Amino acid sequence: MGLSTFAKVCAGAIVGAEALLVLTRDTSDAIRPPGAADERDFLARCIKCGRCIEACPYKALVADASVVGPAVGAPTLDVRSQACRLCEDLPCIAACPTEALHPLQGRSDVRMGLAVINRELCIAVKAMRCEVCYRACPLIDEAITIDYRMREGDDIHSVFEPIINTEKCVGCGLCVERCPVGDPEPAIKIVRDRDEAMLLIEEEQAKVVV
Amino acid sequence: MDVTRRDFVKATAIAAALAAAGGSLATLSGCAQGGQSAQTTTGESQIHTAVCRFCGCGCGVLVETRDGKVVSVTGDPDNQSNRGLNCIKGYYLGKILYGPDRLTKPLIRDDAGTKGTGSGLREAEWEEALDLVASKLKETWKADKSRLAFWGSGQQPITEGYLTAKFWKAGLLSNNIDPNARMCMASAVVGFMNVFQTDEPAGCYEDLDNADVFITWGANMAEAHPMLYSRLTAHKLSGDNVRHYDLTACKTRTSASADKVLIFKPGTDLAIANAIANYLIQNDKYDHQFVADHLQFKTGSENIGNAYEDGYDQSEQGSTVDATTPCSFEEYAERLSEYTMEYASELSGVSVEDLTELAGLFADPDLRIMSLWTMGVNQHNRGTWMNHNIHNLHLISGKYGKPGSTAFSLTGQPSACGTAREVGTFSHRLPADLLVANEDHRRFTEAIWDLPEGYLDAIAKPGFHTIKLFREMSNGNIDFLWSAHNNWAQSLPNLTRFLGMDGEHEGIYNTFIAVNEVYPTVTTDYADVVFPVAMWVEREGQFGNAERRTSVFEKAVDPPGDAKWDVWVLMQVARRVLEGETINGEDAFTHLFGFIWDAQADGFIGDDREINRAIWEEYRIFSNPQLKESAAAINEEKKLKMEAKQLAPYDEYLTQHGLCWPVREVDGKWMSTKWRFANGDQAEGFDEVGIAQYGTQGLAGDVSWYKSTDQKPSVVFRPYEPPAEEPDEEFPFWFCTGRLLEHWHTGSMTREVEELNRALPEALLYMNGEDAAGLGLADGDMARVTSRHGTFDIKVSTSGRVDPPAGLVFAPFFARETMVNLAVHDYYCPLSKETDYKKTCVAITKA
Fold first, then answer.
1. Dihedral (CA of B818, B489, B463, B173) sign
2. Structural domains of chain B, with CATH
C-alpha cells in the first residue's frame, strides 16, 4: 500500500466515522424504555433482541427505525402515539437479558426524560379548564401539580396551570399522548436529557403568556 | 342573519382572541373542509351568539361561520359568566357538528330481531319513516294510551320541549312523557317544591363571588362544572380567608384543591346534616328571628323502604311517601336530638372534631355559606330527603338570601332547568311548575291552550316516571316509545334488564322505538326508526341554566344532508296522528299548532327565528297571565302567583345575551332577578318587584318567600335511613358512576371529536391501591365488576385521578364499549323517582 493510498484510506475512514457519527448522534435524545441509562450505556448493552418489545403489553416499545448506526433495532417510543404506561411490574426490564434496561425498585424510579410544557401552546395557561396532562399523569399530584392563580384582569376566573415536578416526573409521556393540542405540535413534550429539560422549563416559566 | 356593525367589531375581537387562543380556527376550518365538501373559503365570516351544548354552567360562545360551515367556536367575551373562557369540551365544541359518523338520512329497521346487533338499519326517505312512526303511534294511541311514551331530555331546547309537552299532554292526552332530567335533577326539584313550593335555586352564580365558605356535598365540581369551579377557585384566591369544605364519599379533583376533605360513608350525609342542625339548636346557635319570621315545621313519612319491586309505588309504603304533618319547632328539635355528633360520626366515619368544625361555620352569624350539590345528593335513595336536610340547615341558621349565603343545587344539563323543569316535560307536570293533578292548574293551562274547560281532566293522573316506564317496557307493556336528545340505552341504570339481556325481560324487542339522533348510539342500535335531526346551532333554540338564566342560541348553519329540525319532525308526526281529530269543532292539529304551521302548505309559517318567537310568546303567557284575559282571571282567583316565574319577550334574550327569571319590566326595561325572594333594587338583581307584588317587607334577613304556602318555607324533619344496598361478603364494594371533564354524558358527541377522544380514550375503574392489591389487581389489569343486576369488564386504574377510599370504586359512563350501567341498580328515591347511580354493591375479580 502506497503512502497516498494509506492517506486516502485514512481520510476515508475519518469521513466514514464522521458520517456514522452524524447518523448516530441523533439518537441521544430518543426516548428509551424504563431502566435505560444514557445513550452510550444503553447502546453498549442493548443487543436488539426485541424481548422488551415483545414484553410490552401496550405495544409502546418499537424498534428504532434509523437507517444506519448502532441504534438500529434498539427499542424506542413515540410517546405521542403510545406512551409508556408504567406497568407496576415493569415487564420490559424483566425481559432484558443484558441490563441495557437496568433493574429498578419501582415505577417512580423510572427516568425516561422530563416533560416540558410549551406555555405558549398550552390552553390551560390561557385559563381554559383543560389540565388533561395533569389528570392523565400516572403520578398525579406528584409529577404534575396545579398552580392555581387568579387570571389577570379577571376577578371571577382562575388559571389552573399544570406544573412539572422535575424531581418526580419519570418521562413516561402519557401527558404527551393525551394533550389535546396538536397544531402545530402538542403543548407538552418529553426531553430525555434532564439537565436540558430543566433549562427549558425555566425558560418557559420566564415567558409572559397571557 | 346579517352581520351588524357590532358583530363585525366582535368578529375582529374574536379573531384576535383566537389568535391568542392558539388557532383553534385553523384546526376547525380544516376539519370542516375535510369532513364535508372542499369548498373554497372566500365568503365573509358571520358571527352568531350561542350557548355551549354541554353542561349546566351555560357558558356563552360565539360561532363563526363561512360559506355555510362553522369555522370556529370561541368563548363569548361579553358573557358575564364565562367571559370568553371554556373548558376543554367547550374549546372544541364546534367539532361536534362534523364527526365522521353524522346521521344524515332516516333509517328504518325491518327486522326487530336485529336490535342490539349493530346492524339491521337501512336508509329511507322521510315520508316512509314519518308514515311508519305516525301509524305506529296512532295505532297504539287508539288501542291503549297507557302503552305509548316519550322520553325527553334536559338537553332539549325550551321551545322544542314546550311543543312536545303540548302535543303529548293536549294532543294525545297522555302523561307518559318524562325526561332524562328525572335521573339528574328530580330530587332537587322535589326538594325545592316541598320546601318552597317553587322550583329552582333562589341564588345565582354571583353567590360564588360573595361566599366566605363553600361546602360541596358529594359534588365533583372541578370536573363536572369546570368554569364554575374556576369561579369558586378565583373567589378563594382573591378573598380573605375563604374556605372550601368538600364533603364526599370519594376523593376527586375537587377534593384536591379543597381546604378540608371530609370523607363519609355513602348515604350518611343525611345524618351529618341532621347532626349539624341538632348542634345549632342544642347550642342555641340557630337564627331565632329567621325561624320566627319565615319557617314552618313538619314531619314526614318514614321507613319508606326502596323500590326493589315493580309494584313499589302502589304499595302502602310507596304510595304514602309524600305525606307530611305540621309540627312545632320543639317537636322538630326533639326529633333531631338523636343526631348527636357522636352518633353521626359513628355512622359516617367523619370525626366528631371535623363535624363540630363544620357545625361551627353555620353557628357563626357573620359567615356567608354557600352549599353546592349535584348528583351525589340527587342520585341517592333518599335524594329528596337530603335536599331537604341541606335547605333545613341553611334555613334555621338564616344563611339564605344574602349574596353568598345560599343553598345552590348545580344542574347537570344545559337545559334541565329551562326545559325539563320550567316547561315541565314530566309525567306529572304542566308548564311553569303546574301539576296535572291540580284542578286549578289544569283550568289555567286550558285557558292558555284554548281548550274546553275540563279537557285536561283526562290527564289528571300522572303517567309513568322514567324507571316505571322502562320497567314496563322491559315487561312487554309498552308498544311505542319515542326518544330525543338522550341515549337511554347507555345512560339508564339496570341495562341488563332494560336491554333484554337477563333472559327474562325482553320487552325491548317488541316495543316500536323511534329515536331522534345526530350520531349512531347504543340507543339507535335498538331503534326501529331513526330520525336524523339538526344538532345544536343547526337550528335556533334556547337553554335555561342552573342560575335560571335563559339564553338563545342562534341558527348558524343548516343541518347536513337530509337531517331536519326536531320541531319539523314533531309537526309532521303530530299532523299525521291528529288527522281527523277535533277540538272545539276545529281540526285538532290546527287548533294546537296552527300558530306555527300551515297545514295546507305543510310547512312552517316563518323562519327559525319567527317560529321560536311564536312558540316562546305562547309559552310566556304561563308566567305573564295578564297577556290573556281568561288566564289572568284564573291566576287571580286561584292565587296561582304565576308571575313568580315571569319571562321576558323573546327578543330581550337576544339583545341582552340571556336573562335570569323572574324577569321584570321596570320603566320599559326588562331586568333579571339574580336573588329571588331577597329584597332590594331590581336593577341590581334583587326581587323588588316580586316582593312588592306578593311578598312582605321588613322580615328577618329582608327576604320574603312569597311563593311559599303562608309565605313560609317548610323545614321537614328527614331522618337517616340506610342505602338500598349495603356491601356484604358477596358484593363487598360500593360502585359509584359519574362524569369526567373530557366527555359529555355517554360520549355520543365528544367521542366524535378527535382531540377529546385523545384526551380521554377509555373508561377506567378507579380503585384504592390497597383494595386492588388485595384482589391481585395491578394498575392496567382488566377486572370484572359484578352486581346483583349485571356485569361488565373494565381496566383498573390506581392512579388517583379519582381516589376512592377502601371499599369504594368509581367508573365514568361515557364509553359504550364499557357499559357500566349493565351493573348499576335501578332503585330510586321514593319521592323523586330518581335513581341512585352512586351506591350499587359489586364484587370485583380479575378478568
1. positive
2. 5-98 (3.30.200.210), 107-120+128-175+416-545+549-555+566-618 (3.40.50.740), 186-412 (3.40.228.10), 624-712 (no CATH), 733-824 (2.40.40.20)
CB-neighbour burial class of residue B607 (10 A; exposed 0-12, middle 13-18, buried 19+): exposed
Q: Identify whether residues A65 and A100 lie together within a single domain.
A: yes
Domain edge (last residue) among A55, A86, A109: A109
- Could you tell me if residue A165 is left (phi over 0), alpha (psi between -120 and 50 degrees) or otherwise beta? beta
Domain holding A132, by residue range, is 114-206
Say whether pLDDT at A15 is over 90: no
Question: Rounded to the nearest 10 degrees, how much is the dihedral formed by the CA atoms of B191, B194, B197, B203?
Answer: -30
- Asked if omega into A184 is within 30° of 0 (cis), the reply is yes
Neighboring chain A residues of B742 at a CB cutoff of 8 Å: 132
Write out the DSSP string of B419-439: IIIIII-STTB-STT-BTT-H
Grid coordinates representing B299 are 314531619
**Which candidate from B23, B233, B760 shows the least CB-CB separation from A158?**
B233
Chain-centroid distance of CA B213 in Å reads 26
Which residues fall within 8 angstroms of residue A2, CB to CB, at 6 or more apart?
none
* Residues B818-845 pLDDT 10s: 999 999 999 999 999 999 999 999 999 9
Across chain B, which has 847 residues, the per-10-residue mean pLDDT values are 40 43 37 33 85 95 96 91 93 96 98 97 98 98 98 98 98 98 97 97 97 98 98 93 97 97 98 98 98 98 98 97 98 98 98 98 98 98 98 98 96 95 97 97 98 98 98 98 98 98 97 98 98 98 97 98 98 98 97 96 96 98 98 98 98 94 97 98 98 97 97 98 98 98 98 98 98 96 98 97 98 98 98 98 97
Predicted local distance difference test score (pLDDT) of residue A110: 97
Q: Which chain A residues are Cβ-neighbours of B229 within 8 angstroms?
A: 129
Model pLDDT, residue A24:
52
B26 in A contact zone (CB under 8 Å): yes
CATH of the domain at A195: 3.30.70.20
Q: Is B821 annotated as a binding residue?
A: yes
Model pLDDT for residues B731-773, shown as the tens digit of each residue: 999 999 999 999 999 999 999 999 999 999 999 999 999 999 9
Q: What is the ipTM of this complex?
A: 0.93
Same domain, A155 and A105: no
- Residues of B that are catalytic: 89, 184-185, 375, 412-413
From chain A, pick out residues whose CB is under 8 angstroms from the CB of B83: 154, 156-157
Strand bridging mode B791-797 / B480-484: unpaired
**Domain check: are A188 and A152 in the same one?**
yes
Please choose, from the candidates B241, B244, B239, the residue with its C-alpha nearest in 3D space to the C-alpha of residue B229.
Answer: B244
| Nearest Cβ partner for B87 among A128, A140, A149 | A128
Work out the minimum CA distance from A114 to partner chain B, whole angstroms.
Answer: 19
The overall pTM is greater than 0.90: yes
- Whose CA is closest to B374, among B239, B193, B513, B188? B188
The shortest CB-CB distance from A141 to any of B86, B741, B800 is to B800
Residue A68's pLDDT band (boundaries 50, 70, 90)?
confident
Task: Say what angle helices B566-577 and B126-143 make with each other, to 10 degrees.
Answer: 50
Same domain, A131 and A97: no
Count of domains forming chain A: 2
A151 part of contact set with chain B, CB < 8 Å: yes
Which residue in this structure is represented by grid cell 418489545?
A: A53
pLDDT band, very low/low/confident/very high, at A26 (cuts 50, 70, 90): low
Q: What whole-number distance in Å separates Cα of residue B594 and Cα of residue B604?
A: 9
> Any chain A CB within 8 A of the CB of B600?
no
Same domain membership, residue A157 and residue A173: yes
